[in-house]
Design a protein that fits this description.
Elements (H helix, E strand, L loop, with lengths): L4 H40 L10 H8 L3 H7 L3 H23 L6 H18 L1 H10 L12 H13 L7 H19 L6 H18 L4 H16 L1
Helix pairs in contact: 1-2, 1-4, 4-5, 4-6, 5-6, 5-7, 5-8, 5-9, 5-10, 6-8, 7-8, 8-9, 9-10
Length: 229
């Protein structure tokens, strides 16, 4: 039987509609599966590095089929990186929230770094995961660094920061954050001592970007006091 071009087009449209409808039904399930795996990873990776965790343990803890793991992640390293990125994304949202209405790039930077320190202090397990598995987020052009890049670019454009390369400045700030996180998660660190250390580190950071040392110290203290108390 010959199918007319019009009928053929109609059939294609029907098939496409069914496919889209099926995909839309599957998407929530797919998202739930990914969320369960990431939640499992956040708990397990807070206790052990990824090399010490089997995929079977991850999927069993998440309550999903083993094949689901490879529908979302290439391997365990990819999985650990995704968990770390998820955590970093949440912290970046918090940084954006506390900097709403703050226009000075230097103060925004001080408050942002202080917020990362607070994150590590409040959830050492999550901070440990981010330190272990967030190599992808260390690249200056990573999407998670978009907010930092905007602050650096704004500081350079306004003359607050020296006219240095944006990528170099972003890499430097990320390195400072990483080291502060590493120190914050050490046991038996008094909050007052960490606040003082964070102020000193932020003073050096801002001064290296071109802020005069006295003002850098003032901005660092304001950022830490506002965020860390």
């Amino acid at each position: 039987m010959t199918v007319s071009p019009r009928r053929q087009a109609a059939l294609f449209e029907e098939i496409h509609a069914v496919t889209v409808k099926f995909a839309s039904r599957q998407e929530p399930r797919r998202l739930r599966t990914r969320a369960a795996l990431l939640a499992s990873g956040a708990e397990l990776l807070g206790q052990r590095p990824i090399d010490a965790i089997a995929i079977n343990e991850i999927v069993e803890h998440a309550g999903v089929a083993k094949g689901s793991f490879f529908n979302h992640f290439a391997d365990k390293d990819d999985f650990a990186g995704a968990v770390a990125e998820e955590i970093r994304a949440r912290v970046e949202e918090q940084v954006a929230a506390i900097n709403q209405g703050v226009t000075d790039p230097a103060l925004r930077l001080a408050r942002g770094v202080a917020r990362f320190a607070l994150f590590a202090r409040a959830d050492r397990s999550a901070a440990r995961i981010m330190l272990r598995g967030h190599a992808r987020g260390l690249h200056a052009d990573h999407p998670l660094n978009a907010g930092l890049r905007a602050d650096i670019a704004g500081g350079i454009a306004s003359g607050r920061f020296d006219a240095i390369g944006e990528d170099a400045a972003i890499t430097f700030v990320i390195g400072v954050c990483q080291m502060l996180l590493a120190v914050e998660i050490e046991p038996d660190r008094a909050a007052a001592d960490m606040n003082a250390l964070t102020i000193e580190v932020l003073t050096l950071l801002l001064a290296s970007l071109g802020i005069a040392r006295p003002e850098a110290a003032s901005l660092a203290a304001r950022g830490v006091e506002a965020i860390l108390g």
